[in-house]
Amino acid sequence: MPTKPHFFASHHFDRMAHRRDQDTWLEQRRSSGNCWFLPVAGSNNLVVKGPPPAAALLTLEQVSKKLSCTQIYLGEYKEKSCFALLTEHEHDSNWPDTEYQQVLRVATLIDIAEASLLAYARGMSIWHRNHRHCGRCGASTVSSRAGHVLTCSDADCSWQQFPRVDPAIIVLVSDGERCLLGRQESWDQGRYSTIAGFVEPGESLEDAVIREVYEETGIVARSPVYHSSQPWPFPSSLMLGFQASAASSDIQLHDGELEHADWFSPEDLASGKPIRLAPSVSISRQLINHWYYQQTGRDLDTSGTPPKAW
Ligand SMILES: [Zn+2]
């Protein structure tokens, strides 16, 4: 089963990182009209109301009253230079037929490339919002390199901060016949997912897989094998997907993060009872789909009654 590109991956557009410090080139792109602006207010992106909804890709003329807002160069998409426009407050918006939305809520309804752009803009917006002051001396920060560096304004400090990405492992553990899934108390009833957790300093990805699986479920995982990765800017994670085998079967919820964990057979997954799986936009679902295909030779989404997404 070929691994499909994950939602929110950025292969749909060119980040053109070498252009970020070319202010003259960026200004020429803006003034020539070869540009789109993507307003973001905190963690919500501006979208054109549906149906179906679409990313709001606004022209220079449409944002002429907002050009004092922080702009972040995202890259080139359909021969346009794209800039996130940090509008700060949702009520500042008066663009017709638009609204601010959580990108996760519209990701499957809009163009997949535009969903990636929105997620990228969202991640950068949240980073800017959370790093307005220097972590060393507390002075305010100043945006540079087209929004990709935040530099301390105190000349004696001048510490530079770069966009933060938090690595997290996510793993499908199998005992050969069943897969290990768990759920948190706060999730929708019946929803289960693969085991996940943040990588800690001084830890390899494989270390993190084995530690997280044991902490959350008491299962001893062995031989983690990398599968694929997915940007998950909610707010700043990079999900690193693995498969691993189980060297034990007795589940014990050690750290209290999960409300329940259990082993599920391919038949359980295909029946959709009693569990609901993560939506197709998530790497969790792709890991489950891949394991199901390995076990049965069939695509989970077309086998029997597919488990319902969110
Ligand atoms: Zn400082």
Notable characteristics:
310 residues; alpha+beta; Nucleoside Triphosphate Pyrophosphohydrolase; six-stranded mixed beta sheet; 17 strands; 21% helix; globular; disordered C terminus; binds zinc ion
SSE arrangement:
Blueprint lengths: L22 H9 L3 E7 L2 E5 L5 E2 L14 E8 L2 E7 L11 E4 L1 H4 L5 H19 L10 E4 L4 E4 L7 E2 L4 E9 L4 E5 L7 E2 L2 E4 L6 H13 L3 E12 L4 E10 L13 E5 L1 H6 L4 E2 L5 H14 L14
Parallel strand pairs: 1-5, 10-15, 12-17
Antiparallel strand pairs: 1-2, 2-3, 2-6, 4-5, 7-8, 8-9, 10-11, 10-13, 11-16, 14-15
Summed up:
Mean pLDDT is 91; it is low at 304-310. It is built from six helices and 17 strands.
Structural features, described:
It is a single chain. By secondary structure, the protein is an alpha+beta fold. It folds into three domains: 17-130, Alpha-Beta Complex (Nucleoside Triphosphate Pyrophosphohydrolase), CATH 3.90.79.20; 133-163, no CATH class; 166-299, Nucleoside Triphosphate Pyrophosphohydrolase (Alpha-Beta Complex), CATH 3.90.79.10. The protein is 21% helix and 30% strand. It contains six helices and 17 strands. It has helices at 23-31, 103-106, 112-130, 205-217, 266-271, 283-296; strands at residues 35-41, 44-48, 54-55, 70-77, 80-86, 98-101, 141-144, 149-152, 160-161, 166-174, 179-183, 191-192, 195-198, 221-232, 237-246, 260-264, 276-277. The strands form four sheets. Strands 1, 2, 3, 4, 5 and 6 form a six-stranded mixed beta sheet that branches. Strands 10, 11, 13, 14, 15 and 16 form a six-stranded mixed beta sheet that branches. Strand 10 and strand 11 form a beta hairpin. The longest helix has 19 residues, at 112-130. The protein is globular, with a radius of gyration of 22 Å. The chain starts with 22 loop residues before the first helix and ends in a 14-residue tail after the last helix. Bound molecules: zinc ion. Zinc ion (ZN) is lined by residues 134, 136-137, 139, 152, 154, 157, 159.
